[in-house]
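lol forgot to send this yesterday, sorry. C-alpha cells for the thing we talked abt
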C-alpha cells in the first residue's frame, strides 16, 4: 500500500534519511505533546511518525539506496523516538511510574533482541507480538480513548513477553545449529 507514494517520492530529491529525520521530528513533537497532555494531537503526530518510518525504507529500496548505515540510522532514530514518547508519557503522569519504566525497558529490548539475534544469523521476522508498528498503534489508539494507562500496562506485559519469546526462539535455533554442527563433525 505504501509503494505508490514511495515511488512518487523516489522521483523527487527527498532522500530516505531525510524522511527518517522527519519521522523523528514528528515523534519528538508527539512526545512534547504527550508531556503537555494533548493526547489527540500527540497520537496523530505519532501515527505520522510511524508512517514516515515505514516510508523511508520503501523509498530507499525503490531508489536502490538501501544501505547498512541507513538501516542502522533508522533503527537508532527509532529508539530515540520510542524512548522520548514513553518517557514523556511517564513524566506527564499519564501512567504508573514503575509500569512506564517496565514498558520502556521492554520496548527497547524488543529491538535489541532482534538486532542481537540477527547478528548471530537468526532471522527474527515475525517472531514476537510487539514490533514497532504495533506499539505505535497501541499507544495512538489508547490516546484517542484517553486510556494511555492501559496501553502502558499492555506494553509492560507484551513487550517483555515478546522479548522472552525471542529469547526462547534464539535459544532453540542456536541449540539446533549446535546439534547439526556436532552431527556433521
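and heres what i got for the seq, position by position
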Amino acid at each position: 500500500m505504501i509503494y505508490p507514494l514511495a515511488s512518487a517520492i523516489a522521483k523527487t530529491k527527498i532522500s530516505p534519511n531525510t524522511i527518517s529525520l522527519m519521522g523523528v521530528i514528528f515523534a519528538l513533537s508527539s512526545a512534547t505533546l504527550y508531556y503537555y497532555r494533548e493526547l489527540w494531537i500527540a497520537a496523530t503526530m505519532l501515527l505520522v511518525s510511524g508512517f514516515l518510518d515505514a516510508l523511508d525504507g520503501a523509498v530507499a529500496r525503490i531508489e536502490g539506496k538501501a544501505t547498512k548505515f541507513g538501516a542502522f540510522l533508522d533503527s537508532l532514530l527509532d529508539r530515540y523516538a520510542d524512548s522520548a514518547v514513553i518517557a514523556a508519557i511517564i513524566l506527564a503522569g499519564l501512567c504508573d511510574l514503575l509500569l512506564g519504566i517496565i514498558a520502556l525497558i521492554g520496548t527497547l529490548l524488543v529491538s535489541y533482541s532482534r538486532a542481537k539475534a540477527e547478528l548471530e544469523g537468526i532471522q527474527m521476522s515475525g517472531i514476537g507480538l510487539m514490533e514497532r508498528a504495533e506499539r505505535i498503534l497501541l499507544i495512538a489508539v489508547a490516546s484517542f480513548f484517553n486510556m494511555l494507562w492501559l496501553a502502558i500496562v499492555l506494553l509492560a506485559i507484551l513487550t517483555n513477553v515478546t522479548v522472552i519469546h525471542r529469547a526462547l526462539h534464539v535459544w532453540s535455533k542456536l541449540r539446533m545449529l549446535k546439534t547439526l554442527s556436532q552431527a556433521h563433525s
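DSSP finds seven helices and no strands in the chain. anyway ping me if u want another try
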